[in-house]
Amino acid sequence: MSIRAVKFAFRHKVCDPKDRAFSMKPRFALFSAVTAIVLVGAASPSLQAKSDAEQICVSVGRLLEEGHYTHQSLNAEMSQKFLRNYLELLDFSHLFFTQKDVDALTAKYGTALADDILLGNLKPAYEIYDLYQKRVDDRVGKVKELLKQPMEFKSDATVEMRREKAPWPKDEAEADALWHNRIANELLQEKLSEHPIEPGPQLVGRRYDRIARNVHEEDREEQVKLYLDALAQSYDPHSEYLSKADFKNFNIQMGLSLVGIGAMLRTEDGYAKIESLVPGGPAQVDGRLKVGDRITAVGQAGNEYVDVRDMRLDKVVEMIRGKKGTKVRLLAIPANASDPSQRKNVELVRDEIKLKDQEARADIIIKKDENGNPVKLGWLTLPSFYADMDRHSKSTTKDVLALLKRLKKENIGGLIVDLRRNGGGSLEEAISLTGLFLKSGPVVQTKGSNGNIVISSDPDPSIAYGGPLIVLTSRQSASASEIFAAALQDYGRAVIVGDKNTFGKGTVQTILPIGRFTSLLGSRSDDDGELKLTIQKFYRVAGGSTQLHGVASDIVLPTLTDLPEFGEGALKNCLAYDEVPKARYTKWSGPLFIDELKRRSADRVQQDPEFHYVMEDMDRLRHKLDQNKISLNEDARRKEIQDEKARKETRSKERLARHEEEPNIYRVTLDNVDKPNLQLIMYPGKLAEAKAKAGGTKVSPEAAPDDDTDTIGSADDAKEPVVDPERDETLNILADLVDLSRGPKTASANVKKDAEHRP
User: Fold this and answer.
1) Residues labelled catalytic
2) Are strands 441-448 and 530-539 parallel, antiparallel or unpaired?
3) How far apart are CA 373 and CA 369, in angstroms?
4) pLDDT at position 655 over 80
5) Most buried of the four, 81, 106, 190, 254, by CB within 10 Å?
6) pLDDT at residue 393 in the model
7) Least confident residue range of 356-365, 579-588, 632-641
8) What are phi and psi of 555, to 5 degrees?
């Protein structure tokens, strides 16, 4: 219910502001294209007399009309969409306004907001906000009275868990009934919580006092920021107006100089929700926090937890950030929790998040095939497509090339490129990295708003690695990751394994400083903010777009992240999928045996108890999401929680009873890539030994090449041994691909090579 839609991460971008291919060329070309439009206004005395905020309003409106990929005019249709967006940024859960309010606002402003923007009239923004402020004050007063009444949790009533798609209550009476159940649920959640902060009525009352205070703290400048952000997001979800403070936070993140836990947060229904984890950051390395988790409270080392629901996001971020080496504690509702009263307690040590933590790394994995013969496989983890413009020798492609040389020297039979948490990065790096696995040819097509199509190719005919190849993806693989995976799939070069589809972001944004355009209207200030604007779309060499559809896996493995709610299609106003003509390219000559690989994998998945657990959890989660209701009966809720605990305990016992041999894994980093000996990070029996210790002991983050893993036992506190069936099955698929491709068969040579690199 927070009114701030501040986001502290570029949402699944293809390129960051430091990538020339992304920001520099499009920015200046677009500046030239729209300058003439803005200059028309410069000659108007009425425009020159406008306030700074009004001039910013005019500039943002004109830039969106003339510069956005769609060239959508600010007309009556856009006015209605804009109004709806603004109301939903204010009232995300459709609880403070009533349908009567919405109808009255639509009648007054529904077709006129676009004209008001181009005239610099901000009066509607202020009037709508003032009404929202009044509705919040009235509702908080009623909530405080409601909290004085005793509540029993014995009825069969339910409450909607998410209301962003529900209609607004038709009148005050219907709103009162909705709020009664909502407050009952909040009180029951606190009563059932294993980590109570203070008595429920006090905590909930304090929470709503904070909501009212937040609403009154928003000054006119912040209201304008929210209003223009709603306008930009009416065009597409990746266009947004950034105030000076917002852009400062983006620069901190993109510069990787932030000391904290490495979690990108956004506001959803009053919670600070984890949108992504920075590779190499404390949260991602620790492994307990997941994308989709919702933070409910923050505590500093040695101090009590502070409830942060409905707290402004910038204040939550302030509490989480801190000095390097200090500790912060988080209470979070797990993304897959069956009941929102479930919380996990995670303590992290703040650290500086450096580029080095996001570098590519590799593992050499020695496992046994179905015949008991050792097979040596390579696993390349790629957290992002990075390019350091200040150090021209530093790039993803150069780093991966160095790792590939070492892996080839070790005679790996096949390679997996892990992009599961890779949200994008440099377009140029995505193209050049693709070229390491292909001969020269087109990699991606780009279409601008003028309809012109540009084909970007890898000019280098050399191939760094030509052996069996798998690309492992997830719903979190986005932008540049999708370009890389799509190209290798279209060429028939690699087998794509993972979730049904990748994220589906096939658009390009640029950053435009508003001050350049307001200067043409009579004033200029660095405080005018920036406009992140969608200007292009990406297309595969086969002609289809990565927008919305993403990249479909050739072999789908069950995971709890494989939900459409985590993709581009879940965002409002996302651009449509379309196609362009196919580019001319020559497919890879070798077969991929996809049908046979799918058959073998399906047989293993069907017999793997870990995948059975995942599929059971997916069915329960899907049912919960579709049902979208939760009981207000305390006994029923307690039974669900106990059932969940019993299920986890049963699984822990079953895991301990299984004796599965773990592979040997040797880590290759850019620091040791040229050294003769490599670090052994996992050996047979290590996981079993760790699990057998009383209570389950912590396992080093290096215990697996993938940190986005499920945990066993309690969802609380202790970080237990990692279990990653997706990793294990992808290795099995690669072993099959090696076998079908008639790869290296000499087991004795592999064993000898293995012995040479033991510490």
Assistant:
1) 479, 490, 505
2) antiparallel
3) 5
4) yes
5) 190
6) 61
7) 356-365
8) -130, 120
Burial track 342-375 (b if 16+ CB lie within 10 A, e otherwise): bbbbbebebbebeeebbbbbbbbbbbeeeeebbb
Closest residue by Cα to residue 424 from 568, 640, 235, 272: 568
- CA separation, residue 289 to residues 277, 278, 310, 691 (Å): 9, 12, 20, 21
The per-residue pLDDT for 524 is 56
Contact 734, 468 (CB under 8 A): yes
Three-point CA angle 735, 737, 743, nearest 5°: 80
Best-predicted range by mean pLDDT (328-332, 693-697, 698-702):
328-332
Q: For 109, what's the count of Cα atoms within 13 Å in the CB-facing half-sphere?
A: 24
Residue 513 tokens read as 């400083």
pLDDT, average across residues 608-626: 93
Measured CA to CA in angstroms, residue 690 lies from 111, 285, 560, 685 at distances of: 64, 18, 25, 9
Average pLDDT on 663-669 reads 91
Low-confidence winner among 232-246, 344-358, 487-501, 504-518 (lowest mean pLDDT): 344-358
Identify the CA nearest to 620 among candidates 336, 217, 269.
336
pLDDT score of 263: 82
What's the pTM value of the predicted model, to 2 decimals?
A: 0.82
Q: Which residues contact 179 (CB under 8 A, 6 or more apart)?
A: 95, 139, 142, 143, 146
Task: Report the chain's terminal Cα–Cα distance, integer Å.
Answer: 55
State the chain's maximal CA–CA distance in angstroms: 85
pLDDT at 187: 95
The CATH number assigned to the domain with range 257-352 reads 2.30.42.10
Q: Which two tokens stand for residue 150?
A: 């005793």
Nearest to 184 by CA among 168, 167, 204, 165: 204
Task: Band the pLDDT of 629: cuts 50, 70, 90.
Answer: very high
Q: Where in the chain is the domain with CATH 2.30.42.10?
A: 257-352
CA 325/CA 318 separation, integer angstroms: 16
| Model confidence band, residue 45 (pLDDT cutoffs 50, 70, 90) | very low
Buried residues in 633-671 as b, exposed as e (16+ CB within 10 A): beeebeebbeebeeebeebbeebeeeeeebbbbbbbbbe
pLDDT in tens, 485-505: 999 999 999 999 999 999 999
Q: What are phi and psi of 73, to 5 degrees?
A: -70, 150
**Closest by CA position to 727, among listed 444, 365, 479:** 365
